[in-house]
Each structure stands twice: as structure tokens, then as C-alpha cells.
Amino acid sequence: MSAFLALLGREIRLALRHPADTLAAVLFFVLVCALFPFGVGPAPETLARLAPGALFAAALLAALLPLDRLFGADAEDGTLDQLLLSGLPRSGIAAAKALGHWITTGLPLLAATPVTAALLNLPTDAWGAALAALALATALLSLLGTVGAALTLGARRGSVLLPLLVLPLAIPAVIFGAAAIEAAAAGLSPSPFLLLLGAGVSLALPLAPFAAGAALTAE
Amino acid sequence: MDGRLNAGTGATAARPNPGGRSLHRFANPGRFLRATGRLMPILWAAALLVLGVGLVWGLVLSPADWQQGETVRIMYVHVPMAWLAMGGYTGLAVLSVMSLIWRHPLADLTARELSPVGAAVTALCLATGSLWGKPMWGTWWVWDARLTSVLVLFFLWLGHASLVRSFDDPERGARAGAILALVGFVNVPIVKFSVDWWNTLHQPASVTRLNAPGMHVDILYPLLVCALGFTLLFAAVVLARTRAAVMERRVRALQLARARREEGAAA
Known about the structure:
Chain A: GO terms for molecular function: heme transmembrane transporter activity. By secondary structure, chain A is mostly helical. Chain A is 82% helix and 0% strand.
């Protein structure tokens, strides 16, 4: 457990000392959301109709950005080999990486969500649902993305391959997440969709670190 | 035939582990090539014969649907392709388990050669479905649960095909591909049950029902013959690709050995 916490702490310290990566993801999220009004026109109703899907697509793409360096930097300087020898189970390494990715990318994206929700004219009633849905969806993407990053580690064109592997699996997160926001915007309860998203996270939580750990063995 | 049986018992004597015997019998590439070499002509002939009968029966002789007219004949290609897309992915998952647990080298090679064929079959399923959807539903594409999950299946096939080919070390690629295939297998039950879980445009299953198939035997029998024919053709194509991959590997090994010999002679 202490090794897990040490690895998690290292991930967070690295992100704090190089804030540019996190900032790039957040800026990407805001910029993509700011592009939509130019594409579809600034009519408030159109934007509000589009907001749930646009928020989700932008957030998931932004969360993908730092993934190809998740294991890559450690593999290059030998840290990954040290980690694999450290006695921490491989799935534990993957779980710490996934949690670290969520804390250093998912949480900043959540912090930027009010800005993007306002840019897209999302009704304020739906902001709570949007935050909850994005929290769960980014957690799911961190878990799936860790699997993708471990699988494409050392591959040619790995950074191109990674979204191709991860995004199809993330489609359910977009469907249920956007549905939760739409339900809240329409004055309905978003909880059925949030519960389905939570079920997805609960399913991926034990399985994804296991799969990512198995992929790390191959180094 | 005797030679193969003798070779099989020879393997038994050499490897005392009875559990791995049957699986590892074909791990020897030479034995695999010999055994499938005898099987291939039979498989090709059976595939073309059954498929010929099925296609003529389905596309010419069987009656048109009273409601859909002649367009119902798209079904004789569409439904077998859909079954093969799902069945093939299940096969890929089985091969991946064999590869991860037993490190079976031929499972790796077969999985590598299976995924482009699986992607092609899934693409044909989507394309024929789209051609059928235009006259029947009035649209090429809807974001229906079944269509979406089959599209995800197509992406998973493509992802597997490109992942296994993007490593310099083929073993690393095979392992990554096997893990991806198992992760992606969660999608197969979603494809299967999508029509029951979400009540959208695509019709529910009408052949594999517990009580009785929801179609007349005049349509059902040619469909089953077509499905058998396409399955045999699928198996023949995948086996032919795997045989070619084994031989390619052997050619490469021979070339490397000769280069090394010549280098040694020069030095």
C-alpha cells in the first residue's frame, strides 16, 4: 500500500512540477468547446441542445492527450523497469497510474467544466449532473486509457493507435453521460444514467488495472 | 492419415502432460502445415459447393417476402456476415486465451491472420445492412443500439489488426493483441442482446429463439445453408492466411540462416 501511495504521490508531484501538460489538456478542452459556437452558430437554444454531447466529446479527447506519455516517459528513462522490480504488483502499478491520471487530468477538466458549460449555454440546472457525469466518465476513461497506454507501449505509431483502441470502448460513457445531462436539462432525474455510468466504472475498476498490468509484463 | 496419428502419439510420448497434449499437437508448424495441407482442398471444395447451393437457393429459388419483396434476399448475405462477425470475435477471444495461458505460437499467428478477415466480414455486415436499411427503413444509417455496437465491433477488429502489426517484436504484438481482444470481448454480449435491451429500429433475433424461429422454412433453410457456406469459406480463408504466414516465417528464418552462413564464410 505504501508503495502504491508513493507511486501515486510521485505522479502528482510530477504533474505539479510540470503543470504545462495538465494546462494543455484543460486549454484543449476549453478551446474545443469554444469552437462549437463558431461551427453551429451562437443561437443559445442550438448550443444548449448541443452542449451535453460537445462537453463529453471535448472532455474525453482532452483526457486522451496525456495518455501516450503515461508509461512512455517511464519506459524511456528506466523508471518503469525499477517499478516492475519494486515488488508492487503490476496491476497495482497500473491502478496507481490510472488514479494519478484521473487526479492530474480528470479533476482539472472538472474544474474547467463550469467555464465550458457556460460557453455552451448549458442550463444551470444541469451543471450538477454534468459534473457528476463527467467525473464518472473521466474515471472510466482513465481506467480504459491506462489499458490502452500499456498495450501501445513500445508500438510504432503508438500515439495514433491509442485513441483508435480506447475511443470505441468509451462510447457507452458518452451515451450515458450525455443522456444524464440531457435528462437534467429537461427537468428529469439523471440518476438512472449516472448509475449506469457508475456500473461501468465499477466494472472497469478491478478489470482494467488487471489487463493493463498483464500488458506491462511484456516489456 | 497414419503418419499424422503416429506423429500424434510421438508427441504424447515426448510430452507427459496430458492436458496440453491435444492443444500442443498442432503447435509444431510442420505438423500444422501437413495436416491443414490435406484439409485445405476439402475445405475449399465444401465451402464453394455449400455456398453455391445456398446462394442459388436463397437469391433465386426462395420466395420473395410478402412485405419486403425482393430486398429480403440481402438477408442471405447480411445475417451470415453478422453471425461470423460475432462468432469470429468469440474465436479471437478463445485464441487469445490460448495465447496468454499456453503461449501457443499458432494461436498467435491465427489471431493475427483472423482479424483482417473479421474486419472485412464486419464491414460487409454493416454495408449490406446499410443497403437493406435504405429501402426498408428509409435511411442508410441510424444510431440504433445494434448498429452502434456492431460499429464498435468493427473498430475493435481494426484496432486488433493494427495493434498486433505495430511492434517490432511479434511476440509483444501478439500479447498486446490478445489482451485487447479479451478487453473488447465485453462488446460481444452487448451486440447480441442490444436488440432486447434497447427497443430501437433493428428487429430482434428471429432465428435463435427458444420456442420456434420467427420465419418460414422456405426462407430459413436457404439462410442456414448460406450461413454454413460462408462459415466454411471464412475458415478456409483464415486457414489459408495462417498457412501462408507460417511459410513466410519459415522463408524468413531460412534467409536469415543463409545470410548468417555467408557472413561466417566471408569472415
